[in-house]
């Protein structure tokens, strides 16, 4: 077990939060080597850090690289591991080349995770490592999580959930450790912005990414550009508190979204919420691939 020091900005430790981190460390210690699926989000960042803390060089963070990963997220994942001394590799995944993924049915995430595990399993076999992902306890309660099915079929480990950590716990423990990911806004792959049933293409993902870059540059770091009508319509989501400011910047937002390749730019008055595309599954069920 590694005695590597915690992040130098670690604040005073709350007893309950420290106990949760100890529980996570105990879960990780059940493996002698661990290959962590690392997207750079708060969940996988805590898991990667804790795995390095427990296993040292026997823990490796692996980031899946494809058109569905925003360039900023790829850079952020690499920076996080470099700054904290975590072993990091990138693996290319081929989900866009899989027709069952590209057709974007309700089970798209199943095929995405399958592509990830197909890429990670050879690495895990070569090093004798278990594969782990940053599933937290809240994720297990979600009704539509086909990616969880793919993980269960591959016996992929989920130390955060098994240690009893919710999303709020992940952020609290990360803050205790001084991790830069503690307050990072929720992130998801670019394909999650495409309406179910619309084809996922590399060109469409690039347009979504370009439109979101515009929003970030205008001061909306927590935002989504959802694509509808095969890429003709962009539905912009920002937190409800930011709606008045976005309306004030309507011309700049519209110009940036249309420059990215969308014909229409609409504003969702319900504001930002993760997984909003899943509402389409209750309106018009999309047959699985």
UniProtKB/TrEMBL annotation:
Domain NAD/GMP synthase: 30-90
Pfam families given in the database record: NAD_synthase (PF02540)
InterPro entries: LarE, NAD/GMP_synthase, Ni-pincer_cofactor_biosynth, Rossmann-like_a/b/a_fold
Protein name: ATP-dependent sacrificial sulfur transferase LarE
Record's keyword terms, sorted: Transferase
Gene3D superfamilies hit by this protein: HUPs
One Gene Ontology MF term: transferase activity
UniProt entry tagged with the keyword Transferase: yes
UniProt cross-references to PANTHER family, sorted A to Z: EXSB FAMILY PROTEIN, NAD_GMP SYNTHASE DOMAIN-CONTAINING PROTEIN
């Amino acid at each position: 077990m590694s005695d590597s020091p915690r992040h130098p900005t670690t604040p005073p430790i709350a007893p309950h939060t420290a106990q949760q981190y100890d529980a996570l460390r105990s879960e990780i210690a059940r493996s002698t080597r661990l290959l962590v699926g690392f997207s750079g989000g708060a969940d996988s960042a805590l898991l990667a850090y804790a795995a390095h803390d427990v296993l040292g060089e026997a823990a490796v963070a692996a980031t899946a690289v494809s058109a569905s990963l925003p360039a900023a997220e790829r850079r952020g994942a690499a920076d996080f591991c470099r700054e904290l001394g975590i072993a990091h590799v990138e693996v290319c995944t081929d989900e866009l080349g899989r027709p069952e993924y590209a057709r974007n049915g309700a089970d798209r995430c199943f095929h995405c995770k399958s592509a990830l595990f197909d890429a990670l399993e050879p690495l895990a076999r070569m090093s004798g490592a278990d594969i782990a992902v940053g599933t937290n306890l809240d994720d297990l309660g979600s009704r539509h999580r086909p990616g969880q099915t793919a993980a269960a079929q591959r016996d992929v480990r989920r130390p955060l959930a098994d240690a009893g950590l919710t999303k709020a716990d992940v952020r609290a423990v990360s803050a205790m450790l001084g991790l830069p990911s503690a307050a990072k806004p929720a992130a998801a792959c670019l394909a999650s912005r495409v309406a179910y049933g619309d084809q996922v293409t590399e060109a469409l993902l690039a347009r979504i990414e370009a439109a979101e870059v515009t929003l970030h540059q205008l001061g909306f770091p927590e935002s989504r550009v959802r694509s509808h009508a095969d890429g003709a319509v962009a539905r912009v989501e920002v937190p409800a508190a930011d709606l008045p400011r976005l309306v004030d910047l309507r011309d700049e937002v519209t110009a940036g979204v249309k420059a990215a390749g969308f014909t229409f730019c609409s504003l969702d008055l319900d504001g930002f919420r993760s997984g909003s595309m899943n509402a389409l599954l209750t309106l018009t069920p999309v047959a699985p691939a």
